[in-house]
User: Which sequence fits this backbone?
């Protein structure tokens, strides 16, 4: 990259000019399209990715949607950034939607570069969040009318993509967040999200830490028996606690503390359920 310019600021200016040149707006809004790569790049920075990845994400749709070429990106930002951008660009936008998405899924299955996987995950995470926002604003009918394929095909695509990424790295916080938010957008009883990964509870402090930050404090190195939503549903419904959870509650926490814990978990889960219902309204 040229001179001492901040590479992220340089990439932002480059992307803004490129997308403005084709008068591109974000789907469902009148807002300049560059808002999308900015949000994606910010997510990558928050998840700890380096400059090359963040810069590539600011530029990630320039080859696909504007007249910018990989050679132009390489000349300004370097070969690694250009390769990253090219790796997440659809080769032919004139092809039918299903064919393009199948190409994306096939490429992802064969990809082992963690930076390229992160680029894809952050892009799709922002798409899922944008769809959720549009559903709140426009409702089901008007939202899905914006897309080349309807809710069913979109569900299949994002669910398959999230599962491929989790298969590559089940412990990735980025991939697990995409998995969780995909399940929030497309509730599917056949799928149990891994966002709330479990561990045995030892002390009330464990419960407080979990409720404050589930991903950080609820250890992901053991396969969970029950998600927070499943625990809350069992507690509120007629079936009571699953036997293994009831036994754990009595042995580890004591009745009173155990009840407070489940109330807290239920509150977290029900707030997420309200979010899902609002998105479907």
Assistant:
């Amino acid at each position: 990259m040229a001179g001492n310019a901040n590479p992220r600021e340089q990439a932002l200016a480059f992307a803004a000019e490129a997308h403005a040149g084709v008068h591109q707006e974000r789907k469902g809004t009148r807002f300049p399209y560059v808002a999308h790569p900015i949000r994606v790049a910010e997510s990558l920075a928050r998840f700890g990715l380096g400059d090359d990845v963040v810069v590539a994400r600011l530029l990630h749709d320039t080859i696909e949607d504007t007249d910018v070429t990989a050679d132009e990106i390489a000349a300004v930002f370097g070969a690694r950034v250009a390769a990253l951008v090219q790796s997440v660009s659809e080769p032919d936008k004139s092809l039918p939607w299903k064919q393009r998405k199948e190409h994306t899924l096939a490429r992802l299955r064969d990809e082992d570069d963690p930076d390229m996987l992160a680029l894809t995950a952050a892009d799709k995470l922002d798409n899922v969040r944008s769809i959720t926002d549009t559903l709140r604003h426009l409702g089901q009918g008007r939202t899905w009318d914006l897309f080349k394929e309807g809710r069913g095909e979109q569900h299949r695509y994002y669910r398959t993509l999230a599962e491929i990424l989790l298969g590559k790295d089940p412990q990735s916080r980025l991939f697990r967040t995409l998995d969780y938010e995909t399940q929030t957008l497309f509730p599917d009883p056949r799928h149990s999200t891994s966002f709330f990964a479990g561990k045995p509870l030892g002390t009330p402090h464990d419960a407080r830490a979990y409720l404050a930050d589930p991903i950080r404090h609820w250890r992901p190195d053991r396969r969970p028996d029950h998600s927070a939503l499943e625990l809350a549903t069992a507690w509120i419904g007629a079936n009571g606690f699953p036997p293994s959870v009831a036994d754990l509650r009595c042995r580890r926490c004591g009745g009173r503390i155990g009840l407070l814990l489940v109330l807290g978990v239920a509150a977290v889960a029900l707030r997420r359920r309200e979010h899902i219902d609002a998105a479907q309204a």
Remarks:
- The chain has three domains: 1-89, 92-193, 204-280.
- The mean pLDDT is 75.
- Residues 23 and 32 are 8 Å apart (CA to CA).
